[in-house]
From TrEMBL:
The keyword Transferase applies. Keywords: Transferase. GO terms for molecular function: transferase activity. This is Acyl-CoA transferase. It comes from Cedecea neteri.
Length: 453
C-alpha cells in the first residue's frame, strides 16, 4: 500500500525548519503502527520524511519521488541491527528503571558507571533491585530527584502533562522553537559536488554525540556518503549501542578537558564541514568553543547541537535522556492512564531520541544548502524535551498491529564486524537515484586515530 502523505506532524516539522512544502507529497508505504497513547509511528515517518525533504532541497531535486516505509521506520526507532548466533546487548543497567516513592514514581538512569555511583551516593549500595526499591519507597519523588541530580546523577520524577506545563522549565520548553536557527557571516565560497548517488561524498562531519539521538543523525549522514569522525572522551564506552550506531563511522578518542586535546580538536575542526554535538548547553563554550570561535576556526561551518532539556530555563544544563524526558513531560503518566496500568507506561520505543536524530540530520542538510547557495555558516539547536512537546500536541489515530520482522526485511548481505555477524534492516527512506548505504561496518569506540583520512 502506498499513500501520499503530508501529515500534521510532517507539516509542522517542515515549516519549523523553513523548508518549502514538498511537491509532490511524500509517499508512505507499509502498514501498521506502534501501539501507544501518542502517534509514535507518525513521528517516525514524519522525522524521516523531513530529512528526506531537506535532502531533496539540497540536491535541487524537488520533484524526485520520496518514499518512507512506515513499518520499517517503526522498527528502526527500536533497533536496526539483529545479531546472529549471539544475544543482543543488554539495553539497561540492572538498577535502571521506574520505582515507587512515597508520593508517586521516579525513574533512575544508571547505565553509565558514574551515573550509578551518583545514585548510590544518595541511596546507598543495594544488593539487588528489590532492595533498592525499598530504599526509594521511603523518599519523596521530587526531593529524591533533586538529591540525585545534585550528586551528578540522572533521575526524573513522574509528572502529569499539566504539571509539566506549570513547571518553570516546562514553561520554557513550550516557548522554544523546534529548530532554533542562526545564519552566520558570509564564508569563503565552497562548491559542493553533491552527486545524487552519494550526496555527501567529500563532506567531513565531526561527531561529538552519544546515546542515540546524535549518533542516529550522524549514522544517516554516513549513509549518504559523509566522512564521519566520532570523538569520545577517554574511557567512555557504550556497550549497549556501539554496534547499532557506529555504522559507517570512524571512532576515536580525545580529551577536550586537556590543552592537548583542545588543540587537536581545533585541527580537526578546521577541516570539518559539519559539527554535531550533544553536550550540555554551555559545555563547549566553557571549553573556549563558543559559536563565534567555531565559525572563526572553520568559516561556513554547519554547527548543529542537541541536548535533553532545551536551551533556556533552569534545567538547560541538567543531564537527561529520552526515558527521563518522558517521565517529566507527562508522556509516561499519560500512557499509564491510557493503558490503565499501575505504573508508568512510556512510549514503546525511545522515539524522542530517534525523531530528534533525524531532525538533526535534516538541519545539517539544510545547513549545507545554506552554505552551498548563500555562502554562510549555519547553526541549529534541538532538544528531546521540545520533540516531546511536539509529539504530545498531536493525537494518535487508529493503530493496527505491525507485522513481525521477516527475512525479506533485511539488507541482502549480512554484516560482519569486530562485534560478530548480524543482519541490518533495510533503511525506511528511499529517494529515487539516492541510496542510503554504509561503506564500513560498525566499529568499537576509540578504534581509530583522531585524524581525517
Amino acid at each position: 500500500m502506498v499513500k501520499s502523505s503530508l501529515s500534521p506532524l510532517l507539516t509542522t516539522m517542515i515549516q519549523d525548519l523553513g523548508l518549502e512544502m514538498p511537491q509532490p507529497p511524500v509517499s508512505v508505504m507499509g502498514r501498521g503502527e506502534l501501539s501507544s497513547r501518542f502517534p509514535v509511528t507518525e513521528v517516525a515517518t514524519a522525522s524521516l520524511a523531513t530529512a528526506g525533504c531537506a535532502l531533496r532541497a539540497l540536491l535541487s531535486r524537488p520533484d524526485t519521488p520520496l518514499y518512507i516505509d512506515q513499518r520499517l521506520a517503526s522498527y528502526w526507532f527500536s533497533a536496526s541491527h539483529y545479531p546472529v548466533n549471539r544475544p543482543p546487548a543488554a539495553l539497561w543497567d540492572e538498577f535502571a528503571g521506574d520505582y515507587a516513592t512515597r508520593d508517586g514514581w521516579i525513574r533512575l538512569y544508571t547505565n553509565a558507571p558514574h551515573h550509578r555511583q551518583a545514585m548510590e551516593s544518595v541511596l546507598g549500595v543495594s544488593k539487588d533491585k528489590t532492595a533498592l526499591a525499598q530504599r526509594v519507597s521511603a523518599r519523596g519523588k521530587t526531593e529524591l530527584e533533586a538529591a540525585i541530580v545534585a550528586a551528578g546523577g540522572c533521575a526524573a520524577a513522574m509528572l502529569t502533562h499539566d504539571e509539566w506545563l506549570k513547571h518553570p522549565h516546562g514553561k520554557t520548553v513550550a516557548a522554544e522553537p523546534l529548530f532554533w536557527q542562526q545564519f552566520h557571516a558570509e564564508a569563503p565560497r565552497t562548491t559542493l559536488a553533491l552527486p545524487p548517488a552519494r550526496p555527501l561524498a567529500g563532506i567531513r562531519v565531526l561527531d561529538l554525540t552519544r546515546i542515540i539521538a546524535g549518533p542516529a543523525a550522524t549514522r544517516f549522514l554516513a549513509g549518504l556518503g559523509a566522512q564521519v569522525l566520532r570523538l569520545d572522551p577517554p574511557e567512555w564506552e557504550e556497550p549497549t549501542l556501539a554496534e547499532e550506531i557506529t555504522l559507517g563511522k570512524k571512532c576515536a578518542r580525545i580529551d577536550l578537558r586537556s590543552a592537548a586535546g583542545r588543540e587537536q580538536f581545533k585541527i580537526l575542526l578546521a577541516d570539518a564541514d559539519v559539527l554535531v554535538h550533544g553536550y550540555r548547553a554551555d559545555a563547549l563554550e566553557s571549553l573556549g568553543f563558543d559559536t563565534e570561535t567555531l565559525q572563526a576556526i572553520s568559516p561556513g561551518l554547519v554547527d548543529v547541537s542537541l541536548n535533553a532539556w532545551g536551551w533556556r530555563g533552569p534545567w538547560r544544563n541538567r543531564r537527561g535522556f529520552d526515558s527521563l524526558v518522558q517521565m517529566s513531560s507527562g508522556i509516561a503518566e499519560a500512557g499509564m492512564r491510557w493503558k490503565k496500568a499501575g505504573r508508568p507506561y512510556p512510549l514503546p520505543v525511545q522515539a524522542l531520541d530517534h525523531a530528534t536524530g533525524y531532525l538533526i540530520a535534516a538541519a545539517v542538510l539544510k545547513g549545507l544548502n545554506v552554505r552551498h547557495v548563500q555562502n554562510q555558516g549555519y547553526s541549529a539547536r534541538l532538544s528531546l524535551a521540545r520533540t516531546a512537546a511536539l509529539l504530545m500536541s498531536h493525537p494518535a489515530g487508529e493503530q493496527s498491529e505491525l507485522a513481525a520482522i521477516g527475512p525479506h526485511d533485511f539488507q541482502p548481505g549480512m554484516e560482519w564486524s569486530a562485534f560478530g555477524l548480524g543482519n541490518r534492516l533495510k533503511f525506511p527512506l528511499r529517494l529515487a537515484g539516492t541510496q542510503v548505504l554504509w561503506a564500513t561496518p560498525p566499529v568499537p569506540l576509540g578504534s581509530a586515530a583522531a585524524a581525517w583520512g
